Amino acid sequence: MPITLVFLSVVVIWSTTPLAIVWSTLGTSHHFGVAVRMTLGLSICLLLLLIKKQKLTLTPSSLLNYWYAGLGVFVTLGLIYYASQNLASGVISIVFGLTPIITGVFALILLKDKFFGFNKMVGLLLGLSGLLVIFSHSLTESRDLVHGLLAIAFGVVFQAFISVKLKQINAQISALETTTGALLFSAPLFIVVWFFSEGTIPEITLKGALSIAYLSTFGSVLGFISYYHLIKHASVRVVSIVPLMTPVFALLLGSLFNNETLTLMQIGGTVLVLAGLGYYEYGEKGK
């Protein structure tokens, strides 16, 4: 598949996922929505393995890879779905735009990668300043908004840690295997949480059902596989453009299709986050 098409698919999927998550909980609970999404996504992955006549690699490093990837899916998506009850989809996307910066910090700690260049530090400070501005606005609104932002912030940090940990493990397996292994680990956990927290199948709106189907097929399968493919075959600079573009498109989609609005404080915080991310990735002098 042409790398340009893969890049565009990742941008489209990442831009639409926050809004789809918000819609997927319409008429139902976030526990049920994410449990169904993961179960359907796992079924699709297993079907793809069957069609390709491919088996999961079961070496020690691959099993460790599946465990960490699955833990990342369970914790991060669980927090995103929790936060989606109170946060606009655009805000969720903006906060997650900080992932590359936080990933750089964990890469310094775990992989001893070079991080403390001038542009990296300025980008980090700008991004964190933007996050603080968004948080300060929410403190004046409601406790639920604060809880939602805290959940998303922790999700960003945990996902960044997991991505660096997977890089450290460096299991030689395909993107489909990683996705399938992660869902094999996380899907049962989501089902258990739903069963013990609710255990009932609620009525669901058509929009909610279509959103879950979209998230299962594109968000949980095609999105992961495309992103892993992009990491493997594209330059770091190309991959880094994704989190710069997706928050902008997510904000536009939330405004156009879900009547989401941002206050001046939130817009200011968003500008700082995007400026920090841009300077983090492209602010290096020289060359």
What brief labels describe this structure?
mainly alpha, 11 helices, 287 residues, globular
Can you describe this structure?
The longest helix has 28 residues, at 206-233. The protein has 287 residues and is an all-alpha fold. It contains eleven helices and no strands. It has helices at 3-24, 30-52, 60-83, 89-96, 99-111, 118-139, 143-169, 175-197, 206-233, 236-258, 264-282.
Low-confidence stretches: none
Biggest beta-sheet profile: none
The percent range for helix content is over 70%
What percentage of the residues does DSSP assign to strands (E)? under 5%
What's the Cα radius of gyration? 19 Å
**First-to-last CA distance:** 31 Å
In total, the number of strands is: 0
Topology readout:
Elements: H1 3-24, H2 30-52, H3 60-83, H4 89-96, H5 99-111, H6 118-139, H7 143-169, H8 175-197, H9 206-233, H10 236-258, H11 264-282
Helix pairs in contact: 1-4, 1-9, 1-10, 2-3, 2-8, 2-9, 3-7, 3-8, 4-10, 5-7, 6-11, 10-11
Short synopsis of the structure:
By secondary structure, the protein is mainly α. The chain has helices spanning 3-24, 30-52, 60-83, 89-96, 99-111, 118-139, 143-169, 175-197, 206-233, 236-258, 264-282. The chain starts with a helix and ends in a 5-residue tail after the last helix.
